[in-house]
Structure formats: structure tokens, C-alpha cells
Structures
1.
Amino acid sequence: MRYFNYVTPDEEKALFYLPPTSFYNHSDKEILASSVGAALYMPATRPTIAEDIAFGKIEGLVSAIFDLEDAVGENEVHAAEESLIHQMNKLAAFIELGILRSDNLPLLFVRVRSANQLNYLIERLEENVAILTGFVFPKFTAENGEAYFQILENYNDEKSSASPTLYGLPILESEAIIYKEFRYPSLQAIKEIVEKYKDLVLNVRIGATDFSSLYGLRRSPDMTIYDIAPIRDCVSDIINVFGRMDSSYVISGPVWEYFPRKGLIREVIMDKENGLIGKTIIHPTHIKPVQSLYTVTHEEYVDATSIIAKNNGDYGVIKSQYGNKMNEIKPHLNWARRIMLRSQIYGVLHEQQQYFGLLSIQDRAYV
């Protein structure tokens, strides 16, 4: 699997200074954590999951989350579980028959409702659980977090060495996090759990819709989550706790819940500026805009390579190759390393190219 595999060879040559590289659900964790990108939510009741993936019906799809929680009514839970197991079995059959190549399999995740459901699904899926990259843990707290990761740890300890690691993706979206008087103790308690299971934590996700509901708020389609003051402050504190470079986690941006893309593009730009990588989305037309905005510009790339190359003690500050800024070696080194990682996954645009080049291709695809 790789980003922008819908781009023709001629378009790729014209757009990219360095094209994206391939990755799989057994790739290095550092690569996978930043590769989740535009994660498309699908209700687990969707009857065409296997066909949509096997036959490439959702162009550009790189990661998907099959939802057993908010997208499923209380009276649908059992049917949704059975539907999901059936779809995973079909996907496994498509791979075995050669209809779907395993290296073309998107990163697949299941959002569960509880630790008990997680344990049940792992047992029911049996060897087909290896199709998945991980499970998403909603409303993750210090009270329920240990149970999720203990189950995941037990699975990984007992699995075949040939099977990929199964990761956990906690979603921070509870009252104890958004309510300011409880926030820092709650975040610190959660961090203690994820530090304990750090090798199994793929990324930390932010559930801004649940946060907003506690105040009766909802951002409009032309605004961003950063325009909602209590949510912006909470996101800032989550980044403060989990985004520090001494124990940095990949933090994913909040879900975009509208079909229009104007606000989405503004919000992804703000996500990037705040160090977030990836976004949960609810419609296929959101995939390509999000992916396009995570590509690395040529200017970013040459700045990053220059900073890393000169990190030998001989330099303190250097003029950028573009001649429009000063690059300070030590203060900008962590930024440069993040840019280099993103460049592997999302590619580097040519000097005269910007995100709009890729966006024009995505617009053409939906004419």
C-alpha cells in the first residue's frame, strides 16, 4: 500500500520530487503510526466492506475504521459484530484466492465498544484478526484503559511470530478530559497507562465531537474545531502532555463530520501546524484532500535535510536554501526529523508544486 497510487506515472513524475514509499500492516511502528492518514469511518453493519476494499471501489483509501460504537444502535450490536466477522472472513478469502493482494490491503481498524467486545472479536476472528492493524478504543480513560491493553498484550504475546503486531488507538473524548478541573490529573493517569504499553500504542486520537456535545456545541462547516474555545484549549493540553519530544506520540486530528470540504482543508492545515498527523473522516471525498495536505513541500524537505546534515556541532544557524529564513540546527532538529518521516510516507513535491496540484487530480476524479 502506498499513498497516491491513483496518480498516473506521468503525473507522479510531474508532481513529486520524491514519491511516497510503500508500507504494510507489518511495517515498522514508527512508519505505521504516521501512515494512518485519512481514516475513513464505516459502520460495521456496511454489507459491502470486503468488496469495496478488494475491488478498490474507494479510490485512494489507505486506512479504514469499522465502527461498532457510535455508528451502531444499541439493538444492532450483535448483528454488527456478525456482519464484521463475515466481512473479515470474505476479505481473507479474497486474499487466499488472489483476488486481493495482501500488499494492497489498507490499514484496517475496528472501533469497539468495550474491553469485553475486544476480547470476543479477537477470539471470533481467530487467524483472520491478522488482517487488521489494530483496534480503536473509544472514551479511553484511566479506569478502562488498562483492560483494553491487557487483552491486546495477551494476544500479541501468544500470536504466531509471522502475524503482525496488533495495535491499540485510544480516543480521548471523556468528561474527565474536557472538564478543566479534572483534565491534567486525568491526562497524566492516562499517560501512565499508554507509557506502560507504549509499544502497542499506534497513535492517540482526539474525539472532539463527544467533547463538543458536552457543551451543546457543534462547529459549522466553514469553521474549524480550533474556533471552538473549550475544545481548542483541551486539544492544546492533550498536545502538551502527549506531543512532547521526550516521549512523543503521534496524535491524530479530530473527526471531520461534514460533507463539504472547505472547512476540512482549513482544519487539516491547523492540525498540521499543531503537530497532529492524520484525521478521521466520514466520506470518501475527504480522503484525497487530507492526504494531499500531508505531502511535504520541496522547501520543507531541503530545510529538513540541511538541518540534519549539519547537526555535527560545527553550525548553530544557517541560511535556508530558499533564502527566506534562518534554520537553527538544535531548535529545528526535531521538526526536521518529523518532516523526513512524513516525506517517506506522503512524498515530497517538486519545487514548483504545491498541494493544489494533487487537489486538482482529486477534483477531476469526482467530476
2.
Amino acid sequence: MPSFSRLDTRGVAAFVAIAYGFSWLCVLGFVLGFGTEPEKSPGAFKAIAALSMFGPTVATLLVSRWVSPLPSLKRDTGLGLGQHRWRFFLLAWLGTPVVVLGALLLSALFYPQAMDLAGLSSVRTLIAQLPPAAVEKLGKLAEPRVFLALQVVQGVLLGPLLNVPFIFGEEWGWRGYLLPRLLPLGQWRALVLSGVIWGLWHAPLILLGYNYPQHPVLGILLFTVVCVLLGILLGWMRLATGGIWSAVIAHGSLNAVGPVVMLLGHAGSPPDTALVGITGWPGWLLLAALVGVLVLTRRLPVRPPDETRDMPGDAHASGT
């Protein structure tokens, strides 16, 4: 587990300023060039959103090189594969979709009227928008339930790989650089504070309708809650392994499978993501429960190797 004896206020402040500055300027460039309605320029919006994800990486490179140099960039920012890696890689890759689908199940129990699970009208609308030749080529795969299942399977299997370059842009900064530098404040404070910083960083995108199109202002607060809870879980992966890669995989899987919630609403009436899915409060309950499990099983706070060596289930569980 990375350990630093004192808080590097200068490095942390510079990191946050650069990460926010780069990413927020990207969004400002979109607003100045295309306006405040991303749905009118979806391609440009996706490109700018993807570019903004590299703000934390730019900040890590500049701060670790010019502002507050690190003894070893690879070791001190978690670029190594880390310990227990295969166990955590599998947990991140396969466990994250289970959490996302679990949040959808909870949402359906609390708000069945918000989701069209029987008719799948949103899926039918999406299929209807495909070129006839594509629908004919898909054949039975164009049946709504099969088509939806195919989207989920593709997201689970391929999503983490396809998202790695962009997710790395975030994770190398938030969990690679920032979280370890906040550890002198105490592990819980570091996890929560890094989650708050991560959540508020999304503010310009959320104001444009990202994640919470029905709540562009309140969504900033709502998503910050999500980021704190997710940040604790991703931070646990980072601290327990010493590397960022399990967090990268989990974050990439989340971004790939999470949007499935938009296919489960009624056609022409997207679900309120403050109420359903991993970003809604049912999702918060599930994430909080997972944090609770880690606490009850003494996985959080993460202990130094010499303290965890004799814990049940940890003995000699290093990756190869």
C-alpha cells in the first residue's frame, strides 16, 4: 500500500487545478463551438467528453515532473500490476456488471413504472432506427430481448478493453496520483475527499445533461455521492493491490454496462437516472452495502502487508 508521511499540499493543489482546468476548458470549448445542447452535436460532445477524461493524466504528468517530483513514477502512481492482481482483475471485470445489474433490479423493484421491462419499447425503437439491411442481417438477433442481451454481453466482455485508454486518463490521476497523496489525512478521509474531488470535476458535463439529463444542477450533488461511494471501492482496489489496473478495469466495465439503463425505459421517455440504475439512489444503497461488507470483513481500511498477512483468506494470495 502506498504510504506518504506528510501531505504534499503544493502537489495536491497543483494537481487539482490542472486536472480541473484542462477538462473544464475542453467542455468550455464545446459550449463556445456548439452551444449548450449536446444532443444537437452528439459526435462532437462524445469527442470532447473523451478528451476531458485525460485532464487527470495531464495533471499527473506535469505535477510529478515539474511541481512535486516523485522518486519513482511507476511505483508511486501505481503503474505496476500490483499484488493479488489476477483475483482483483477478475473481481473488477466480472463483479462490476453484477453490481450494475443488481442496481437495475433494485430500481425495478422500487420504480417498476419507470422501466419498460415487458415491452422493451426503447430497444424496439433503437432496432427500428437501424438500416433495414442491418436488421435483416441480424435476423433473430434483432428480437428485442436477444438484442438487449447481446448489448449487455458485449459490454461485459469487451467494454473494459475498449474503455481502457480513456479510463486510464482518469484513474492514473484520481487513484494513481491523488489518493495516495491524501493518505496522510487518514485513509477514510483520503477516500472520501478524493471521491468528492472526482465527483465535482464532472460538474460542467453534468450541467450539459450528462448522467442526469432531468437534473442538470442537482445532478452535480447526486453524482458526487456516487463518486464518493464508487471512489471508496475503486480506492480499496488501488490500495489493496498497489496498482491502478483493477480500478481501471472496474471503471471501464461500469462505463460500458451502466448505460444499459437507458434501454430499459419507455420509448420517448428516458428513465430518471436519479431514481434508477447505478447513479440512482437504489444504486447508492447497493454501493454502500458493498462498502459495509468490506468494513465488516476488515478489508477496509486497507492494512499494511505485515498486518494483513495472517488475516483469513489473505495468506500467500499474491498474484503471479
